[in-house]
């Protein structure tokens, strides 16, 4: 993929989950994030179409993978195989909206736990220092993140960026990916 045209939008080394990304705006967002350097997880109900978008991104030199994910079905989204990623899951907010949270590396975990959840205790806990540890203790993290989401609205949950508001990163790399659909 070509380097980002604007250095403010350099997402190299960042990850993004895009829901509804099998076509239309979702596919365009996934492709734009990949063009800016992000590794993109393309999710949709239509795995064939999502896979085609991911393949197109990879063919153009980007990094992408695809999964089936229906954020409207919270129980199914919470059971989704995480492919060794943790934390990863869908959680309900106080205003009955769905938030999909996930991290793909230790740096994202630190940003999620410290900056978004404001839980230094989780960030400093040796059990969660590595992805393998987070996977092994998934239920503890799932409960903590679920409780945090349940106390906030979709707005209060999604407005907590992992970077200063003056940068381009909050809107594109926040580990809290939000969907405004209802089950």
Provide keyphrases for this structure.
183 residues; alpha/beta; three-stranded parallel β-sheet; 9 helices; 6 strands; 42% helix; disordered C terminus
Strand content: 15-25%
- Tell me the number of helical segments per DSSP (H or I, 4 or more residues long): 9
Structural class: alpha/beta
Largest sheet: 3 strands, parallel
Pick out the low-confidence regions: 160-183
SSE string? EHEHEHEEHHHHHHE
Short description:
The protein is of the alpha/beta class.
How are the elements arranged and paired?
Elements: E1 15-18, H1 24-35, E2 39-44, H2 47-59, E3 63-68, H3 74-79, E4 88-92, E5 98-102, H4 106-116, H5 120-124, H6 131-136, H7 138-150, H8 154-158, H9 169-173, E6 176-179
Parallel strand pairs: 1-2, 2-3
Antiparallel strand pairs: 4-5, 5-6
Account of the 3D structure:
By secondary structure, the protein is of the alpha/beta class. The chain has nine helices and six strands. It has helices at residues 24-35, 47-59, 74-79, 106-116, 120-124, 131-136, 138-150, 154-158, 169-173; strands at residues 15-18, 39-44, 63-68, 88-92, 98-102, 176-179. A three-stranded parallel β-sheet has the order 1-2-3, with helices on one face. Strands 4-5-6 form a three-stranded antiparallel β-sheet. Helix 1 runs parallel beside helix 2 (47-59). 38% of the residues are buried. Residues 160-183 have low confidence and may be disordered.
């Amino acid at each position: 993929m070509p380097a980002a045209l604007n250095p403010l939008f350099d997402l190299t080394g960042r990850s993004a989950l895009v829901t509804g990304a099998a076509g239309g705006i979702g596919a365009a967002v996934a492709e734009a994030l990949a063009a800016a350097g992000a590794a993109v997880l393309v999710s949709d109900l239509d795995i064939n179409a999502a896979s085609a978008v991911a393949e197109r991104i990879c063919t153009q030199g980007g990094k992408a993978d695809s999964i089936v994910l229906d954020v409207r079905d919270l129980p199914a989204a919470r059971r989704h195989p995480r492919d060794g990623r943790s934390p990863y899951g869908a959680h309900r907010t106080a205003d009955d909206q769905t938030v999909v949270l996930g991290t793909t590396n230790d740096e994202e975990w630190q940003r999620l736990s410290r900056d978004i959840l404001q839980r230094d205790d989780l960030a400093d806990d040796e059990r969660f220092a590595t992805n393998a540890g987070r996977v092994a203790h998934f239920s503890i993290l799932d409960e903590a993140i679920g409780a945090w989401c349940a106390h906030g609205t979709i707005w209060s949950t999604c407005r907590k960026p992992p970077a200063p508001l003056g940068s381009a990163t909050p809107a594109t790399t926040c580990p809290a990916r939000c969907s405004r659909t209802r089950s």
